[in-house]
């Protein structure tokens, strides 16, 4: 075909619009590059706003499914909406690749669901090992009360215990909580060696600032979800010394990363991209590569099969391979905030 | 001796309660005292915060100027809000309309609609992500009081809230304007008969209440260091709950209930868990209403 | 013989105000009793005490041999006491017919079930028909059938007064209490109202009414109770009351 | 009955229109709109008819959806069973929370419903062992009737339409009967209604419970339709959305509630072309509609006028003198 | 002859599509009591409300002390010295009696408080009580007292005797006479036509939104049509 259509459902308005807007920007970068590369066909992406609302998410899913020209779909942002939409894609045989959906059951819905994100089954043990290596035996863990937060606590706690450590404290907070001081005091009372946290940058910044206010020096570890320059912007000095994992480093000298970072900066007043836009950028490129492999006449089924065959895709978030159960296996890097920047830690 | 841990939690609860109280004061003035259903107060709060932020990033003025700027925007926003979403519904004088439930609730929807438009517009202009406030402006330097750690902002918020409370209480009970506000809220038609300019009284109340809302917004922005379009939502609900729990028209009542809410949340976090803390706060509200069906400080219903 | 309504040593305080103090009185089946007294004497309060709106501070009220103090207004109403209000309370955004039907519903067992499945089983159908019949009857009694579909808010004042009475009548009460039914009516209208109340009474309804219009009270009441400052100061036939010194002094004024 | 028949006709004929486009999207929106028609109609009973501001309706919708989802995922039950059970469980929960709170009036009632709604939401979110919390639940079964699958596009539509029509007709019967009048009298003047023998507390409780029942039914429809539910679907903002539907359409009018729901579901979809501006437009349309028609698109009064004009003759003919006066007043 | 204090000419008032007053003309001379009679629903209250600026006039003019006041905002009219004790009392039920009176005084202040309280002694016993908890008659007194607080030039009374005991009614009419003696003009709507005609200088009869009869009060008192319609049948 001359033009291949893809759908992208994402929150462009509403409380989570900041993420959706970033995804669209990343997708546009990827798409412009792809179409400029002189391929024999062009790809078009239809963006639809889901507001992180399952109602709208399923509506969009039906809309995409109706459009016979659409051969693959990206998104949604939250697991809830992705899962609801996935029910539609499952029945319609539409490949769906989410850049962020972290629900453990998401890829189990059908063979059409893929994701480009390190799961907590991978990230939790990785961090647990890291902390154990640092000698933190007695740790506290908190996470937002979402499906993702649940998997953060689950994946991490099991690994800690397996490593012979103890989880001294474990609790969930409601996303968007403003005041963590009560929770922090409570954590401190359990006297942990370190705190492992499952939050996005907004909640993270508040948490770190209030930790500093209360004069607490317990080391903090976190996941790649908090990896955003906004974390440092919002938390300032309070972010200093936070340890986290990531699979994207804007400082990585490799050309594709630098190219992405440059393009991003051009479109964002010089801001540096964080983890999520990078995941979205890679997700789009993985999808585009699959479409290309499904040429000359890509169908939904062919695109799905092509996606499933993704091996060692060289993205800005490292090499991506889809396992048999359509999970991305990612290489993680350790990062620490030092001098107001994310700095890789070699250990 | 008493475990300082509980003292600390109590202090945190109080400080949280003060932040709710700050919002509740302006909210109660418009919704409770003036008795108009206003769902857009949260957006005024947000506008105040953004006004302050814009001012800071544009000219980096002294903090007092920032607050004055927010107050000015609050006044303007309150004025426009009243003009757009409330005044049009006072054009009806026929009896069926005056006594119609639908008419009375129409400002619920008009203010809701205005709040949607304002929030969406803010999102389009500023994006929906959190914006950081430059660190020099933050009011979160830790202060140690005995075994308890607070921040400077707690004292500033306490001072501002106390000033607002006392000022409003004085205004409402000691001045002609306050009397007029209460008269308009009690019986708008009667107010016309005694020569009160009802339109002006309502606008004045909106302006004053919105200025307080905007001041609350910028203070909270400086306190937490983050400003974003949806920031008014949660405090709005808390202020609403505090207002009703306090008995609707009593501003001190709303403040006390805001403090109760804050403390019950921090105590719930302490003894139960953070996730369930709102549950305790709402449970407390229901309990209060069972025993005080008109709120803690509410007037009894009129006689039959 | 027991009285239909027995008020024994009833009192009610509001803070420092003794609105009703130690009043004992009774109304017999079939009587038409007037209750008069200066403003603030406690007449409305006494009505509120009877109909359950205000809890008693002391004493007791019995209706048809049964103590009713402590019951909720709707329970009292269902026992057969229905009332109107001093300051007109119709349901403004409901049609005249619907207003009246509320009275009829009030007197019958209420439940969603009947209304929902009313069309399908006999009990429900009958209930609906019964309510409709009672409502029409009441409307007819006051002569408002021609405005049945009108919104109550659109009625002129005089018709609203009758509407309120019709609503009370739709309950098929045994005992009707009217709080200033003639207020705001001119002499001619008051005369019609008096005739109407008399007619109701003639049909066997027991009525007690508060009124400041002496022509009406003296003209139709068989017996008159007088309250002043919350206490009963007189109880007797109109002629006796008219010349009672205490009543003249407290209420009527010297020349009238 | 006339409006019910019209409703039925519209709902039945709609697919004929949709079939022409052959788009699942339209069916999806039609189903979603119908579910919200039911939600707003059920809230109409409490807020429009009985005049009590209900700020926690979405929670009962959630209770219904969770009942359906849990029964399906834990016990393997199908739609035929979960549909009534969802309604009943939601009604039961409503009844229990209503016991202590229904004495409240006006805004105190509203804030109590807000608190109830939030508490139920917190239970869905935080009681992870039972509700799976934020993980949500996959509802593996679609619509069926006694084992016969109805999950095809058209069958699903007719299932939803049938359930919604029946429920709306039932709500219509309730609100246009003497029962509805008793509820209305609570809205107009509850103390006076009390004096007329209307037991206000009991009726409020019934109306609240009934509306929760229908919200629960709507929840079951949603659960089986999407196949996945999570607490986020039943947040406070959904309650506000439903409230807005009832108010836009005209507080107190059932057709208004239906139209309000259709408008607020279809409008955001219809405005997709506007991109990021579409929600501003939704707000503006809401604002203009209430500004120009402050009693709602089909307010109580205008609705009454409409009925009266249509049935004007019937009114007069059914007077007591005409011999067929029985059973009128509410058709 | 001097110009009347209040002059209403060709006044049309409508509520929605329905016109209620169709061209009313009425004058209140300086220092006079003018009574408006009429059965229920003919538009007396509508007339009073329009004069006070609560309702808009669709057509016609209202002049007060030579100044046109039709469609002037209600509060300005009150400030010109025209107060009303309206139908339905419109007191502030959640505020106490004293606050009600203070509001009545407006910018003029509390100068009249003692004098007004002397007219209604029962109110001075209840200064701290919520107005809503007063008895019906007490509320009516409060309503009149509130209107007097401003020392108006023209006082509008809409059924002032409503709900008052006969003794107080007599006092009220007495009071109206005394107020007039102090130079206040009064426009009076009253169902108690007999008493109204006794104290009024002029009277007008409103029917279906039109003045159908008007003239000096003593003439009207003897008019058989009045007797038939408003005085309970028998001529005076
Ligand atoms: N809730 C209350 N709080 C305080 N005082 C009250 C309350 N209710 C009534 N009163 C007082 O009790 C007294 C009796 O009032 P009530 O209304 O019974 O008088 P009434 O005889 O009906 O007078 P009227 O003829 O003027 O209607 C009044 O002086 C009133 O002020
Ligand atoms: N606000 C209003 N809305 C609708 N109709 C009104 C309104 N005010 C008055 N009307 C109508 O106008 C007509 C005249 O009413 P108005 O109150 O002026 O009569 P009135 O002469 O004062 O009667 P009353 O003796 O009962 O006080 C009535 O039919 C009334 O229904
Ligand atoms: Mg009374
Ligand atoms: Mg009148």
Automatic annotation (TrEMBL), chain B:
<dbReference type="GO" id="GO:0005886">
    <property type="term" value="C:plasma membrane"/>
</dbReference>
<dbReference type="InterPro" id="IPR052157">
    <property type="entry name" value="BCAA_transport_permease"/>
</dbReference>
<keyword id="KW-0472">Membrane</keyword>
<dbReference type="GO" id="GO:0005304">
    <property type="term" value="F:L-valine transmembrane transporter activity"/>
</dbReference>
<dbReference type="GO" id="GO:0015188">
    <property type="term" value="F:L-isoleucine transmembrane transporter activity"/>
</dbReference>
<feature type="transmembrane region" description="Helical">
    <location>
        <begin position="239"/>
        <end position="261"/>
    </location>
</feature>
<keyword id="KW-1003">Cell membrane</keyword>
<dbReference type="GO" id="GO:0042941">
    <property type="term" value="P:D-alanine transmembrane transport"/>
</dbReference>
<feature type="transmembrane region" description="Helical">
    <location>
        <begin position="12"/>
        <end position="37"/>
    </location>
</feature>
<dbReference type="GO" id="GO:0015190">
    <property type="term" value="F:L-leucine transmembrane transporter activity"/>
</dbReference>
<feature type="transmembrane region" description="Helical">
    <location>
        <begin position="107"/>
        <end position="128"/>
    </location>
</feature>
<dbReference type="GO" id="GO:0015192">
    <property type="term" value="F:L-phenylalanine transmembrane transporter activity"/>
</dbReference>
Automatic annotation (TrEMBL), chain C:
<dbReference type="Pfam" id="PF12399">
    <property type="entry name" value="BCA_ABC_TP_C"/>
</dbReference>
<dbReference type="InterPro" id="IPR003593">
    <property type="entry name" value="AAA+_ATPase"/>
</dbReference>
<keyword id="KW-0813">Transport</keyword>
<dbReference type="GO" id="GO:0005524">
    <property type="term" value="F:ATP binding"/>
</dbReference>
<dbReference type="InterPro" id="IPR027417">
    <property type="entry name" value="P-loop_NTPase"/>
</dbReference>
<keyword id="KW-0067">ATP-binding</keyword>
<dbReference type="InterPro" id="IPR003439">
    <property type="entry name" value="ABC_transporter-like_ATP-bd"/>
</dbReference>
<dbReference type="InterPro" id="IPR032823">
    <property type="entry name" value="BCA_ABC_TP_C"/>
</dbReference>
<dbReference type="InterPro" id="IPR051120">
    <property type="entry name" value="ABC_AA/LPS_Transport"/>
</dbReference>
<keyword id="KW-0547">Nucleotide-binding</keyword>
<dbReference type="GO" id="GO:0005886">
    <property type="term" value="C:plasma membrane"/>
</dbReference>
<dbReference type="GO" id="GO:0016887">
    <property type="term" value="F:ATP hydrolysis activity"/>
</dbReference>
UniProtKB/TrEMBL annotation, chain D:
<feature type="transmembrane region" description="Helical">
    <location>
        <begin position="29"/>
        <end position="46"/>
    </location>
</feature>
<keyword id="KW-0812">Transmembrane</keyword>
<feature type="transmembrane region" description="Helical">
    <location>
        <begin position="155"/>
        <end position="174"/>
    </location>
</feature>
<feature type="transmembrane region" description="Helical">
    <location>
        <begin position="207"/>
        <end position="229"/>
    </location>
</feature>
<feature type="transmembrane region" description="Helical">
    <location>
        <begin position="279"/>
        <end position="298"/>
    </location>
</feature>
<keyword id="KW-1003">Cell membrane</keyword>
<dbReference type="GO" id="GO:0015658">
    <property type="term" value="F:branched-chain amino acid transmembrane transporter activity"/>
</dbReference>
<dbReference type="InterPro" id="IPR043428">
    <property type="entry name" value="LivM-like"/>
</dbReference>
<keyword id="KW-1133">Transmembrane helix</keyword>
<feature type="transmembrane region" description="Helical">
    <location>
        <begin position="105"/>
        <end position="124"/>
    </location>
</feature>
<keyword id="KW-0472">Membrane</keyword>
<dbReference type="GO" id="GO:0005886">
    <property type="term" value="C:plasma membrane"/>
</dbReference>
TrEMBL record, chain E:
<dbReference type="GO" id="GO:0016887">
    <property type="term" value="F:ATP hydrolysis activity"/>
</dbReference>
<comment type="similarity">
    <text>Belongs to the ABC transporter superfamily.</text>
</comment>
<keyword id="KW-0813">Transport</keyword>
<feature type="domain" description="ABC transporter">
    <location>
        <begin position="6"/>
        <end position="233"/>
    </location>
</feature>
<keyword id="KW-0067">ATP-binding</keyword>
<dbReference type="Pfam" id="PF00005">
    <property type="entry name" value="ABC_tran"/>
</dbReference>
<dbReference type="InterPro" id="IPR003593">
    <property type="entry name" value="AAA+_ATPase"/>
</dbReference>
<dbReference type="GO" id="GO:0015807">
    <property type="term" value="P:L-amino acid transport"/>
</dbReference>
<dbReference type="InterPro" id="IPR027417">
    <property type="entry name" value="P-loop_NTPase"/>
</dbReference>
<dbReference type="GO" id="GO:0015658">
    <property type="term" value="F:branched-chain amino acid transmembrane transporter activity"/>
</dbReference>
<dbReference type="InterPro" id="IPR052156">
    <property type="entry name" value="BCAA_Transport_ATP-bd_LivF"/>
</dbReference>
<dbReference type="InterPro" id="IPR003439">
    <property type="entry name" value="ABC_transporter-like_ATP-bd"/>
</dbReference>
């Amino acid at each position: 075909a001359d033009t291949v259509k893809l759908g992208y459902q994402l929150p462009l308005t509403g409380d989570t619009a900041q993420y959706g807007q970033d995804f669209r920007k990343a997708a546009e970068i990827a798409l412009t590059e792809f179409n400029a590369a002189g391929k024999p066909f062009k790809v078009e992406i239809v963006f639809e706003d889901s507001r992180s609302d399952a109602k709208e998410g399923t509506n969009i899913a039906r809309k995409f499914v109706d459009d016979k020209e659409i051969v693959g779909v990206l998104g949604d942002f939250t697991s809830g909406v992705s899962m609801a939409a996935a029910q539609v894609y499952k029945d319609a045989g539409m490949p769906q690749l989410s850049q962020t959906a972290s629900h453990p059951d998401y890829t189990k819905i059908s063979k059409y669901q893929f994701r480009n994100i390190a799961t907590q089954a991978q990230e939790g043990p990785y961090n647990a090992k890291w902390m154990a290596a640092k000698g933190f035996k007695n740790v506290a863990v908190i996470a937002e009360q979402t499906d993702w937060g649940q998997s953060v606590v689950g994946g991490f706690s099991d690994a800690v215990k397996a490593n012979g450590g103890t989880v001294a404290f474990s609790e969930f907070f409601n996303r968007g909580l403003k005041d963590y001081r009560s929770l922090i005091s409570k954590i401190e009372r359990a006297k942990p060696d370190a705190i492992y946290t499952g939050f996005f940058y907004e909640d993270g910044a508040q948490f770190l600032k209030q930790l500093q206010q209360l004069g607490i020096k317990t080391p903090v570890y976190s996941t790649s979800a908090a990896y955003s320059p906004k974390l440092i912007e919002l938390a300032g000095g309070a972010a200093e010394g936070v340890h986290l994992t990531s699979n994207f480093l804007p400082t990585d000298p490799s050309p594709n990363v630098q190219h992405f970072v440059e393009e991003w900066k051009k479109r964002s007043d010089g801001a540096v991209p964080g983890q999520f836009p990078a995941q979205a950028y890679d997700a789009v490129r993985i999808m585009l590569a699959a479409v290309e492999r499904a040429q000359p006449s890509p169908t939904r089924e062919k695109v799905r099969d092509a996606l499933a065959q993704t091996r060692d895709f060289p993205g800005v978030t490292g090499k991506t391979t889809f396992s048999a159960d359509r999970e991305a296996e990612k290489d993680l890097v350790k990062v620490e905030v030092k001098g107001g920047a994310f700095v890789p830690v070699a250990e | 001796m008493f475990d300082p841990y509980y003292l600390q939690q109590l202090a945190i609860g109080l400080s949280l309660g003060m932040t709710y109280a700050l919002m509740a004061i302006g909210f109660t003035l418009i919704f409770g005292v003036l008795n108009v259903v206003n769902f857009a107060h949260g957006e005024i709060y947000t506008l105040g915060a953004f006004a302050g932020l814009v001012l800071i990033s544009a000219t980096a003025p002294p903090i007092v100027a920032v607050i004055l700027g927010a107050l000015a925007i609050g006044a303007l926003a309150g004025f426009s809000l009243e003009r757009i979403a409330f005044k049009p519904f006072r054009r009806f004088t026929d009896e069926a309309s005056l006594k119609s439930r639908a008419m009375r609730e129409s400002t619920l929807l008009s203010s809701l609609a205005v709040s949607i438009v304002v929030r969406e517009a803010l999102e389009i202009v500023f994006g929906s992500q959190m914006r950081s406030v430059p660190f020099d402006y933050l009011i979160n330097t830790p202060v140690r009081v005995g075994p308890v750690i607070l921040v400077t902002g707690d004292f500033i918020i306490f001072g501002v809230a106390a000033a607002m409370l006392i000022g409003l209480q004085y205004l409402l009970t000691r001045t002609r304007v306050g009397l007029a506000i209460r008269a308009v809220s009690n019986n708008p038609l009667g107010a016309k008969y005694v020569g009160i300019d009802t339109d002006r009284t309502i606008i004045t109340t909106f302006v004053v209440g919105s200025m307080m809302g905007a001041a609350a917004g910028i203070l909270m922005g400086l306190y937490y260091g983050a400003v974003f379009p949806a920031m008014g939502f949660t405090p709005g609900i808390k202020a609403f709950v505090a207002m009703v729990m306090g008995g609707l028209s009593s501003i001190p009542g709303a403040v006390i209930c805001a403090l109760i809410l804050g403390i019950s949340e921090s105590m719930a976090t302490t003894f139960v868990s953070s996730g369930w803390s709102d549950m305790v706060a709402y449970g407390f509200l229901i309990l209060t209403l069972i025993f005080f069906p008109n709120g803690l400080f509410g007037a009894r219903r009129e006689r039959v | 013989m027991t009285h239909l309504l027995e008020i024994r040593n009833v009192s009610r305080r509001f803070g420092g105000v003794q609105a009703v103090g130690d009043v004992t009185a009774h109304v017999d089946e079939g009587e038409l009793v007037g209750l008069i007294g200066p403003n603030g004497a406690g007449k409305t309060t006494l009505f509120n005490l009877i109909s359950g709106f205000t809890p008693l501070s002391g004493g007791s009220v019995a209706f048809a041999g049964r103590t009713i103090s402590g019951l909720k207004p709707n329970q009292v109403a269902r026992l057969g006491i229905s009332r109107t209000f001093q300051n007109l309370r119709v349901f403004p955004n409901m049609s005249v017919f619907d207003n009246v039907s509320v009275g009829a519903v009030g007197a019958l067992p209420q439940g969603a079930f009947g209304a929902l499945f009313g069309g399908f089983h006999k009990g429900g159908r009958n209930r609906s028909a019964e309510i409709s019949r009672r409502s029409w009857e009441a409307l007819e009694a006051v002569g408002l059938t021609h405005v049945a579909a009108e919104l109550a808010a659109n009625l002129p004042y005089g018709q609203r007064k009758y509407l309120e009475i019709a609503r009370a009548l739709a309950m098929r009460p045994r005992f009707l209490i009217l709080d200033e039914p003639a207020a705001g009516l001119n002499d001619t209208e008051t005369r019609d109202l008096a005739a109407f109340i008399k007619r109701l009474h003639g049909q066997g309804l027991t009525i007690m009414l508060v009124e400041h219009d002496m022509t009406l009270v003296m003209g139709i009441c068989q017996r008159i109770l007088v309250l002043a400052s919350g206490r009963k100061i007189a109880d007797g036939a109109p002629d006796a009351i008219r010349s009672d010194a205490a009543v003249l002094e407290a209420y009527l004024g010297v020349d009238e | 009955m006339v409006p019910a028949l019209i409703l039925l006709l519209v709902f039945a004929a709609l697919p004929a229109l949709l079939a022409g486009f052959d788009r699942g999207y339209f069916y999806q929106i039609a189903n979603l709109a119908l579910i919200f028609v039911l939600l707003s109609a059920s809230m109409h009973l409490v807020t429009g008819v009985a005049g009590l501001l209900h700020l926690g309706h979405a929670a009962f919708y959630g209770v219904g959806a969770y009942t359906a989802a849990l029964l399906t995922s834990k016990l393997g039950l199908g739609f035929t069973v979960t549909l009534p059970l969802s309604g009943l469980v939601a009604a039961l929960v409503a009844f229990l929370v209503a016991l202590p709170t229904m004495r409240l009036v006006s805004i105190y009632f509203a804030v109590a419903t807000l608190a109830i709604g939030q508490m139920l939401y917190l239970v869905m979110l935080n009681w992870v062992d039972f509700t799976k919390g934020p993980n949500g639940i996959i509802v593996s079964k679609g619509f069926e009737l006694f084992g016969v699958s109805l999950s095809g596009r058209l069958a699903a539509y007719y299932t939803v339409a049938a359930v919604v029509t029946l429920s709306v007709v039932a709500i219509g019967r309730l609100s246009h009967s003497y029962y509805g009048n008793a509820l209305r009298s609570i809205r107009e003047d509850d103390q006076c209604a009390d004096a007329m023998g209307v037991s206000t507390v009991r009726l409020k409780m019934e109306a609240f419970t009934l509306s929760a029942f229908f919200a629960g039914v709507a929840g079951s429809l949603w659960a089986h339709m999407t196949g996945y539910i999570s607490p986020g679907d039943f947040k406070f903002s959904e309650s506000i959305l439903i409230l807005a539907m009832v108010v836009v359409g005209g507080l107190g009018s059932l057709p208004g509630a239906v139209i309000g729901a259709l408008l607020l579901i279809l409008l955001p979809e219809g405005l997709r072309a506007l991109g990021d501006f579409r929600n501003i437009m939704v707000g503006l349309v809401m604002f203009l509609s209430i500004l120009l028609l402050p009693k709602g698109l089909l307010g109580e009064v205008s609705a009454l006028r409409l009925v009266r004009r249509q049935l004007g003759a019937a009114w007069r003919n059914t007077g007591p003198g005409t011999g067929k006066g029985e059973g009128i007043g509410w058709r | 002859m001097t110009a009347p204090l209040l002059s209403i000419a060709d006044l049309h008032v409508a509520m929605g599509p329905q016109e209620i007053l169709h061209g009313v003309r009425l004058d209140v001379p300086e220092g006079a009591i003018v009574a408006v009679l009429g059965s229920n629903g003919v538009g007396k209250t509508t007339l009073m409300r329009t004069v006070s600026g609560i309702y808009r006039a669709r057509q016609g003019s209202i002049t007060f002390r030579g100044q046109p006041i039709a469609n002037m905002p209600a509060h300005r009219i009150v400030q010109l010295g025209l107060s009303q004790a309206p139908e339905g009392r419109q007191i502030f039920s959640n505020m106490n009696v004293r606050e009600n009176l203070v509001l009545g005084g407006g910018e003029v202040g509390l100068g009249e408080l003692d004098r007004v309280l002397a007219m209604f002694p029962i109110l001075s016993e209840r200064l701290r009580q919520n107005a809503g908890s007063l008895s019906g008659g007490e509320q009516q007194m409060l309503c009149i007292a509130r209107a007097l607080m401003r020392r108006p030039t023209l006082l509008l009374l809409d059924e002032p005797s409503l709900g008052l005991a006969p003794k107080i009614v007599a006092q009220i009419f007495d009071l109206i006479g005394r107020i007039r003696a102090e130079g206040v003009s009064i426009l009076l709507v009253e169902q108690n036509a007999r008493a109204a005609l006794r104290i009024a200088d002029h009277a007008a009869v409103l029917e279906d939104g039109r003045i159908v009869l008007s003239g000096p009060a003593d003439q009207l008192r003897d008019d058989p049509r009045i007797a038939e319609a408003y005085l309970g049948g028998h001529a005076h």
